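chain below, 308 aa
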Amino acid sequence: MSAVETPVRGRRKTAADADRGILSTADWGRRRVRATTRLTHAILLLSLIVVGLGPILWLAKSAVTPTQDTLRQPLALWPNGIDWANLGEAWTRVEIDKYFFNTVVIALGVWLVQVLVATTAGYALSVLRPRYGKLVVWLVMATLFVPSIVLLVPLYLTIVQPPLLGQSLINTFWAVWLPAGANAFNVLLVMRFFDSLPREVFEAARMDGAGPYRLFWSVVLPMSRPIVGVVSVFAVIAAWKDFLWPLLVLKDPAIQPLSVRLPQLQQFIELDVFLAALAISTVIPVALFLLFQRIFLNSAGMGGAVKG
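prediction:
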């Protein structure tokens, strides 16, 4: 074996493989090029940390910092000590627990509706393939080009006077749950994932006597855990930070989520308590990303399938 060939996972790595990239092996051998590249990488990494983590870290610091210190020295690290009482006062005085519970209920309902609609619609369009399935797919894709703000008024009127029900859904969680199911991106994402599943498994299940419902529940869903996880993360995070639609349909403060209630309480509480309440409200989205970061990052590769 020559000096330029080494076995890498079952195949030989040649000199051509080492030269693939912006900088070749000869470029890396130059001290100036190597130093400039490493300095550029360090600057980019520091910039990403400042832009991405900076606001979150500042909010966490300000949540336990007195108001005067935040106003006078916003970037200083606790010049007059840490005030842990802000968190307790935010939890009790702002009633974070009640609005936190409302937010959890809304997020769980949105998650259930979006997963149910996306998986069943994707299953029907990809596996069952009805006669007019392609037309339905094009219609679903067409809705992606309609700005959501244009649909705000007709959707609100539908919630005020829903067909067949005869009773307004205003001030009920259903007013947030049901419209969340109309998510064309999730439907197309799940449909493209179902397209990649092996058709031989479906045919074998049909030969064993599995009907459409049994095929969906016992075969398709167990094979679709990755895409269900991706849709779940998208659904929960979107529901957690949604502001405009819950503000319109949930007018009763007793059932409003954190994203709606906290801005309304800002003028009645101190800045440090308000920042502490904001920090508490961001715990769940950050925790969800840390728990499901592998699924969330892998979804980038699946997102391109929508264009295929």
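The two ends are 43 Å apart (CA to CA). The CA atoms of residues 109 and 177 lie 6 Å apart.
thats it, cya
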